[in-house]
Amino acid sequence: MHLTKCLFYLQLPKRSLLLAACAACIGGTFQYGYNISIINAPTMYVHNFINQTWRDRYQTNISEDVLTLLWSTIVSIFTLGGLIGATIGGTLSVKLGRKGTLLANNISALTAALLMGLSYPTGYFELLIIGRLLTGVNAGIGICVQPLYLGEIAPTAFRGAMGMGTSIFITGGILTGQVIGLKEILGREEYWPILLSTTCIPAFLQLLILPWFPESPRYLLIDKGDNEACKKGKVIAQSLHRELPFQNNLAGVQTKKPWELLMDRSVRWQLLTIILLNIAQQLNGINAIYFYAGYVFKRSGIPDDKIPYVTVGTGACECITALTCGVLIECLGRKVLISGGYALMSIFCILFTLTLTFQDASPVVPYLSMACVFAFILSFGLGPGGVTNILTAELFTQDSRPAAYMIAGSVNWLSFFFIGLVFPFIVIGLQQYCFLVFLAICSLVAIYIFLVVPETKNKTFLEIQTEFQSSNSRKVYNADGAGTILNETLFHQE
């Protein structure tokens, strides 16, 4: 029965819907994944460039501490840009539209590519810092607005599968960056400025493809009140036929600001849920696994010059699981995948801690550690990696969704910055036992999802909102009939 359902869901999405998703994702979350991984390959080459530039300017070698500080700034300022992008993404999506914001967002990617490409010939390493900041802004806006667009153009039956485009293209971006950074392609010293400038390619592709697809029909109808434009986009958003008769009732609906959403008691459990899930997505140990991967591969007997190719295997592994999650999400549901993913990650935290502790006990143990690395990545890709963004879209109605993405994105990027800052000290202090910290996080999140979060598969946004409030005993009703007004407004929105 379950197999029949899975096959049923596999064949339903229309080609126009899939093409629209690809057009949105290639310049959206693909850029996020790509710019996370692409910076790793030219590390030593950029170090040499900074050192040479410093020597030319000041006739002295740069100190090791200053070099480390400059390189850390180049890498980490990406997260600051991401935070800026997340805080403005929701506002831009209301003013320019979902598609309009994605198209305008490519300006930052193209500018970043130009600046990073010019850094070497001009001798200004400062251009790398500005360029990385702009790639972060691009990624922050993309990861905020693209899932919003996908969630609003998809019919209810395919909202989960469409939403998985976010995870699939993030992992695809990471994998592409790893492959492009190999020495056989652009990973050699003379090519590093070109390598960093390749972020312009996804931007150009989106500018060529996305204009052919319509704006989000929900945005046109509910936010702009444009009935005719909405009907033109209705080929993609088949589920909107219930909303069209209520256009006149939507004229007074205003999109909420983030601070208004934070003060809205009727959605406090939804807000708590997306805040916890976005914190956990960065603090669940996936970054630690990648940190330890090189060490584990080396202990397993893999030569140093071959480790980058095995690392590509970890990227491919995560990409494949994201695709698998896209297939399974409409037959197993969101709750099973994300809670099951965190439960499996908890188990592999324990096993990985044990194998790291007893690395020298047997020649077999390093290979068990390698198996734990891939199993942990598989568990992350099957649930938390993809479902988190989908739930952010599904737990909120039209007037709250942009603000919810701004809050979720800000929390995600702040957590990203925090783990980048604190993680080295956790590893130094706890060594292999750092995974006990991640075990606690994964276990607690799995329990929270199991107890609090309702299943959202095949439900309208109104049904999800109602069930979430009902299951947590938080219905909003007043003696003067305010609850009735609220329910009518929600029905008209969804």
UniProtKB/TrEMBL annotation:
<keyword id="KW-1133">Transmembrane helix</keyword>
<comment type="similarity">
    <text>Belongs to the major facilitator superfamily. Sugar transporter (TC 2.A.1.1) family. Glucose transporter subfamily.</text>
</comment>
<dbReference type="GO" id="GO:0055056">
    <property type="term" value="F:D-glucose transmembrane transporter activity"/>
</dbReference>
<dbReference type="GO" id="GO:0042383">
    <property type="term" value="C:sarcolemma"/>
</dbReference>
<feature type="transmembrane region" description="Helical">
    <location>
        <begin position="102"/>
        <end position="121"/>
    </location>
</feature>
<dbReference type="GO" id="GO:0005353">
    <property type="term" value="F:fructose transmembrane transporter activity"/>
</dbReference>
<feature type="transmembrane region" description="Helical">
    <location>
        <begin position="336"/>
        <end position="358"/>
    </location>
</feature>
<keyword id="KW-0813">Transport</keyword>
<feature type="transmembrane region" description="Helical">
    <location>
        <begin position="403"/>
        <end position="427"/>
    </location>
</feature>
<feature type="transmembrane region" description="Helical">
    <location>
        <begin position="307"/>
        <end position="329"/>
    </location>
</feature>
<dbReference type="InterPro" id="IPR005828">
    <property type="entry name" value="MFS_sugar_transport-like"/>
</dbReference>
<feature type="transmembrane region" description="Helical">
    <location>
        <begin position="69"/>
        <end position="90"/>
    </location>
</feature>
<keyword id="KW-0812">Transmembrane</keyword>
<protein>
    <recommendedName>
        <fullName>Solute carrier family 2, facilitated glucose transporter member 5</fullName>
    </recommendedName>
</protein>
<dbReference type="Pfam" id="PF00083">
    <property type="entry name" value="Sugar_tr"/>
</dbReference>
<dbReference type="GO" id="GO:0070837">
    <property type="term" value="P:dehydroascorbic acid transport"/>
</dbReference>
<feature type="transmembrane region" description="Helical">
    <location>
        <begin position="271"/>
        <end position="295"/>
    </location>
</feature>
<keyword id="KW-0472">Membrane</keyword>
<dbReference type="InterPro" id="IPR036259">
    <property type="entry name" value="MFS_trans_sf"/>
</dbReference>
<dbReference type="GO" id="GO:1990539">
    <property type="term" value="P:fructose import across plasma membrane"/>
</dbReference>
<feature type="domain" description="Major facilitator superfamily (MFS) profile">
    <location>
        <begin position="21"/>
        <end position="457"/>
    </location>
</feature>
<feature type="transmembrane region" description="Helical">
    <location>
        <begin position="364"/>
        <end position="391"/>
    </location>
</feature>
<feature type="transmembrane region" description="Helical">
    <location>
        <begin position="192"/>
        <end position="213"/>
    </location>
</feature>
<dbReference type="InterPro" id="IPR005829">
    <property type="entry name" value="Sugar_transporter_CS"/>
</dbReference>
<feature type="transmembrane region" description="Helical">
    <location>
        <begin position="161"/>
        <end position="180"/>
    </location>
</feature>
<dbReference type="InterPro" id="IPR003663">
    <property type="entry name" value="Sugar/inositol_transpt"/>
</dbReference>
<dbReference type="InterPro" id="IPR045263">
    <property type="entry name" value="GLUT"/>
</dbReference>
<feature type="transmembrane region" description="Helical">
    <location>
        <begin position="433"/>
        <end position="453"/>
    </location>
</feature>
<dbReference type="GO" id="GO:0046323">
    <property type="term" value="P:D-glucose import"/>
</dbReference>
<keyword id="KW-1003">Cell membrane</keyword>
<keyword id="KW-0762">Sugar transport</keyword>
<feature type="transmembrane region" description="Helical">
    <location>
        <begin position="127"/>
        <end position="149"/>
    </location>
</feature>
<dbReference type="InterPro" id="IPR020846">
    <property type="entry name" value="MFS_dom"/>
</dbReference>
